Description:
The structure is a single chain. The protein is α/β, with parallel strands linked by helices. It folds into two domains: 1-59, no CATH class; 61-143, no CATH class. Helices cover 27% and strands 27% of the residues. It is built from four helices and nine strands; from the N terminus they run E-E-E-E-H-E-H-H-E-E-E-H-E. The protein has helices at residues 46-55, 66-74, 81-96, 126-129; strands at residues 7-9, 19-21, 29-32, 37-39, 63-64, 101-106, 109-114, 119-125, 139-142. The strands form two sheets. Strands 5-8-7-6-9 form a five-stranded mixed sheet. It has a four-stranded mixed sheet with strand order 1-4-3-2. Strand 3 (29-32) and strand 4 form a beta hairpin. It is globular and about 40 Å long.
Amino acid sequence: MRPGNENININRVVTLGKPVANPQKPGISTLKTGLNNIKTEEQQDFKDVFKAALENSQAWDIKFSKHAIRRMEDRKIELSTRQLQNLRDALAKVKSKGVKDSLILMENTAFIVNVPTRTVVTAVDNNSIRENVFTNIDGAIII
């Protein structure tokens, strides 16, 4: 299957595009989006949806390292579509300033991002952020 043709099952419908009939499964509408086709089937666990979205994160032009994925799962950090877009926008801002490794503070979460590769290296939640020392960064943005 070519990248960009995968389907992500979600348990909440988020309208990101126009519904299109799915000829392979009558009764299931498919939303055409910039991410991929998102089926609007019920009964899908958020963790599965999140993993699938992370695997398809190239559509967002953001990658998540295995370490970052593990930290986000361990710390129960969940990102909404809006938050992913905010992260993407912040990444564009720090890139325009020539930053190579950035600390992005968003709401109650900190992300360390390698800007040239657009890869989230790690994520830290509000409970773990206190008294943490962030090293090897050359820029920070608060969004």
